[in-house]
Specification:
With 342 residues, this protein is α+β, with helices and mostly antiparallel strands. The chain has 2 domains: 8-154, D-amino Acid Aminotransferase, Chain A, domain 1 (2-Layer Sandwich), CATH 3.30.470; 165-325, D-amino Acid Aminotransferase, subunit A, domain 2 (D-amino Acid Aminotransferase, Chain A, domain 2, Alpha-Beta Barrel). The chain has helices spanning 49-52, 76-89, 97-110, 187-202, 248-259, 312-325, and strands at 21-27, 30-31, 35-37, 56-58, 61-65, 71-74, 123-132, 145-154, 165-170, 207-211, 219-222, 226-231, 236-239, 265-267, 277-284, 288-297, 300-303, 336-338. Strands 1, 2, 3, 4, 5, 6, 7, 8 and 18 form a 9-stranded antiparallel sheet that branches. Helix 2 crosses helix 3. The longest helix is centred in the middle third of the chain and has 16 residues, at 187-202. The two termini are 17 Å apart. The structure holds pyridoxal-5'-phosphate and 2-OXO-4-methylpentanoic acid. The site of pyridoxal-5'-phosphate (PLP) has 12 residues, from helix 5.
Length: 342
C-alpha cells in the first residue's frame, strides 16, 4: 500500500488532507447517489441555514488497521442512529442509516492508504456531518441539505495520550440547557463550550467537567467526552443526564465493565462523590479512555494517580476496549465491521 510519509506514532488530533471526501445532496425530498471528490471546499449559498441558524450536526468514529491487517470501523451503526436523532432534533433531513454506513465505507475505502499502520496508536478519524444548505432568512428549516463525510489520520485527542489529565469543575458557564440539545451532536454545543474550555486551559487544566445546568450539583460530562468514576468498591458509575451526549464509547465500556464484574450503573452523580472515587476517566471516540489524574472544584482537589501512571481500573478498561478495536481480543458483540471493497 502506498502510504503517505507521516510520523504515524506522533500524530496529533488535527486535520490532514486525504485523497477524498464524499458528499450527498438532499433536494426535493430525496438524497442523491453521493459523489467522492478530492475538493476540500464546498460552494455554499450565503443564506444557507447552517451559516445563520446553526442547522448542523456531526458524528465521529474511527477506522483502524487490526493486528491481522484487516481494516475496520467500530460500531458504525450506532453513529448512524445517533446522526439520525441529531438531524431530527434540529429539523434537518437525516441520512438513512444504510446510506450513512455506505458513505463511511465508500470514503474509507477510497482513503485506505491513510489508515494508520497497526501498532502506532493512530487511527483514521471519520467525521460525517449534515448541514442545511438551502437559503432562508426567516428562522425555518432549510429545504436543501448536504451530508458530507471527511476523514483524517489522527493521534490522541489529549496530546499526552493514555496519560492522566487534569479537570476543573465548571459551575459557572453551562454547555447545554437541561431540556435543550445537549443530548445530540450539534455544532452549537461546541461553540457554547469554547469559553469554559479556553478558560480552563488558561488556568492550567486540561479540560472542564460540567455540572448540570439546573441545580449545579450533579456531574454532566467533560467538554469532548463522557465521564466515569470507579467507586472505592470497584463499581463503574457514569452520569445519567438529559443534557449529555450518549457516548458510544461509554455504552461499550458499560458492557465491558459488566463482564469485568464492575457492576456498572448509570445514575445521577453528585459532585461531592468525586472525593470518594478511586479512579476516574473521560471516554469518547476521540478521547478513547483518558485517565483523570485530578479534579479541582473551587478550592478542593482530588488526585486519583501519582505522576503519569494511569490508574489500574482505567488501564483494564482501556485494554479491553482497544483490544477489541485492534482485533487483539474477541469481538463478542459484533461491534467491528470490516471495510468492504467498494
Ligand atoms: N460527549 C461529547 C460532548 C462528545 O463530543 C463526544 C464525542 O463524540 C462524546 C461525549 C463521546 O461520544 P462517543 O463515545 O460516541 O464518541
Ligand atoms: C469525538 O470524540 O468523535 C468527538 O466528536 C469529540 C470532538 C470534540 C472531537
Amino acid at each position: 500500500m502506498d502510504r503517505p510519509d507521516l510520523d504515524w506514532a506522533h500524530l496529533d488530533f488535527g486535520y490532514r488532507k486525504t485523497d477524498y471526501n464524499i458528499r450527498y445532496t438532499w433536494r426535493d425530498g430525496e438524497w442523491d447517489e453521493g459523489v467522492l471528490t478530492p475538493d476540500e471546499t464546498i460552494p455554499i449559498h450565503i443564506a444557507a441555514t447552517c451559516l445563520h441558524y446553526g442547522q448542523e450536526a456531526f458524528e465521529g468514529l474511527k477506522a483502524y488497521e487490526q493486528v491481522n491487517g484487516d481494516q475496520v470501523v467500530f460500531r458504525v451503526d450506532e453513529n448512524a442512529r445517533r446522526m439520525k436523532r441529531s438531524c431530527e432534533k434540529i429539523f434537518m433531513a437525516a441520512p438513512p442509516e444504510e446510506m450513512f454506513i455506505e458513505a463511511v465505507f465508500r470514503v474509507v475505502d477510497a482513503n485506505r492508504r491513510f489508515i494508520p499502520p497497526y501498532g502506532t496508536g493512530a487511527s483514521l478519524y471519520v467525521r460525517p456531518l449534515v448541514i442545511g444548505t438551502g437559503p432562508q432568512v426567516g428562522v425555518k428549516p432549510a429545504e436543501e441539505y448536504m451530508f458530507l463525510v471527511l476523514v483524517t489520520p489522527v493521534g490522541p485527542y489529549f496530546k499526552t495520550g493514555f496519560k492522566p489529565v487534569h479537570l476543573v469543575v465548571e459551575d459557572e458557564y453551562d454547555r447545554a440547557a437541561p431540556d435543550g440539545v445537549g443530548d445530540v451532536k450539534v455544532g452549537g454545543n461546541y461553540a457554547a463550550g469554547l469559553r469554559a474550555t479556553l478558560r480552563a486551559k488558561q488556568a492550567g487544566y486540561t479540560e472542564v467537567l460540567y455540572l448540570d445546568a439546573k441545580e449545579k450539583k450533579y456531574i454532566d460530562e467533560s467538554g469532548p467526552a463522557n465521564f466515569f468514576g470507579i467507586t472505592k468498591d470497584g463499581q463503574y458509575v457514569t452520569p445519567e443526564s438529559h443534557s449529555i451526549l450518549p457516548s458510544i464509547t461509554n455504552k461499550s465500556l458499560i458492557t465491558l465493565a459488566g463482564e469485568m464484574g464492575m457492576n456498572p450503573e448509570r445514575r445521577k452523580i453528585h459532585v461531592e462523590e468525586i472525593f470518594g472515587f478511586r479512579d476516574a476517566g473521560c471516554c469518547g471516540t476521540a478521547a478513547v479512555i483518558t485517565p483523570v489524574g485530578s479534579i479541582t472544584w473551587h478550592d478542593r482537589k482530588v488526585e486519583y494517580v501519582t505522576g503519569d501512571v494511569p490508574g489500574e481500573d482505567c488501564t483494564r478498561l482501556y485494554e479491553a476496549l482497544t483490544g477489541i478495536q485492534l482485533g487483539e481480543r474477541e469481538d463478542k458483540y459484533g461491534w467491528i465491521r470490516k471495510i468492504p471493497e467498494m
